[in-house]
């Protein structure tokens, strides 16, 4: 939506003279009406905020949705709102001036919410922080919040006393699986306070969460599907800076392995070993340690998987 600027003209370097301009409130641009050149980008609108009243009959056609909904749809409606607190009622024998005093002492209090809601807000903040550090998209972050909230609503109740970081990481692990973008336990452990030492605890908590939420019959929260090596492949290749041809070769090798061979190893281990084989065939300078650093798979595991897959190189790479 465009609106004429307060001043009728501004100098346009393309037209080389002062021309009429319009303001685009959607993008924050000032645009020349003659050549469409953007003269000023992302200007700050200093006008007052306003609300939408659907039936007020206003003639202004500008989009008035400036404030929007509450910040987090997973929080109860009253969290983050405002309450009015009143002082105690005056005694019966108080004078008229004293009786009016409580009206003067009432105050507006901005609150986050009762104690359970405070814990929920803190948990959502922790989950969002972990998701940001892992570079996860908003859909995964919101799914993790949903899983955490369901834990509090589960009939059996989730055991208390658990490390909060590992609980958040377990929720993110399930959310990543929900959205078809899995992360390894080691990746999730890297953003906890305990670091890599939390990997086993995250695994145990994931199983515990599945046990608590699996009886609800909703299916959505625990629909984590089956993880394949291809789910990790593209991300691992990107970290190692592999080109398109190498990524395609690794993808084809993993597909042939799944179709023709029976290799019983973790998907991330297979992905790391296949990537190492592709790099070796291409004459790359990356070592097993480089692959281990990028994928989070131990060097010994990559070496063992490579030793197991090497005899099948002709099947994997078609030659």
TrEMBL record:
Q: Give residue spans, biased composition: Basic and acidic residues.
A: 59-72
This protein's UniProt keywords: Metal-binding, Repeat, Transcription, Transcription regulation, Zinc, Zinc-finger
What Gene Ontology terms describe where this protein resides (cellular component)? nucleus; transcription preinitiation complex
Query: Is Methyltransferase set as a keyword in this record?
Result: no
Show where the TFIIB-type domain sits: 8-40
What Gene3D superfamilies does the database record attribute to this sequence? 1.10.472.170, Cyclin-like
Q: Which CDD domains match?
A: CYCLIN_TFIIB_rpt1
What would you give as a GO molecular function for this chain, any one?
TBP-class protein binding
For this protein, the record's Pfam families field holds:
TFIIB, Zn_Ribbon_TF
SMART domains the record matches? CYCLIN
Region (Disordered) spans which residues? 54-74
Q: Name one GO biological process term.
A: transcription preinitiation complex assembly
Q: Which family does it belong to?
A: Belongs to the TFIIB family.
List the protein's name: TFIIB-type domain-containing protein
């Amino acid at each position: 939506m465009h609106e004429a600027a307060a001043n009728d003209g501004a100098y346009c370097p393309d037209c080389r003279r002062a021309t009429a301009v319009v303001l685009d409130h959607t993008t924050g641009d000032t645009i020349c009406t003659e050549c469409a050149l953007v003269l000023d980008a992302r200007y700050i609108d200093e006008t007052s905020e306003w609300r939408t009243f659907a039936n007020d009959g206003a003639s202004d056609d500008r989009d008035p949705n400036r404030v929007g909904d509450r910040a987090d749809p997973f929080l109860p409606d009253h969290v983050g709102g405002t309450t009015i607190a009143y002082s105690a009622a005056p005694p019966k024998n108080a004078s008229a001036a004293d009786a009016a005093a409580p009206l003067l002492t009432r105050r507006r209090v901005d609150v986050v919410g009762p104690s359970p809601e405070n814990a929920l807000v803190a948990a959502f903040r922790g989950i969002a922080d972990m998701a940001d550090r892992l570079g996860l998209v908003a859909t995964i972050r919101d799914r993790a919040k949903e899983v955490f909230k369901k834990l509090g609503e589960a009939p059996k109740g989730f055991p208390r006393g658990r490390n909060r970081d590992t609980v958040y990481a377990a929720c993110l692990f399930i959310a990543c699986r929900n959205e078809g973008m899995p992360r390894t336990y080691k990746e999730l452990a890297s953003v906890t306070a305990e670091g890599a030492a939390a990997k086993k605890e995250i695994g145990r908590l994931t199983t515990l969460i599945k046990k608590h939420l699996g009886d609800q019959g909703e299916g959505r929260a625990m629909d984590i599907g089956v993880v394949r090596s291809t789910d990790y492949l593209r991300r691992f290749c990107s970290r190692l800076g592999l080109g398109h041809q190498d990524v395609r070769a690794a993808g084809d090798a993993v597909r042939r392995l799944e179709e023709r061979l029976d290799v019983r190893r973790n998907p991330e281990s297979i992905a790391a070993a296949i990537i190492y084989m592709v790099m070796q065939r291409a004459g790359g300078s990356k070592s097993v340690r480089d692959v281990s650093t990028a994928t989070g798979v131990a060097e010994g595991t990559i070496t063992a998987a490579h030793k197991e897959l090497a005899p099948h190189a002709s099947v994997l790479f078609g030659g």
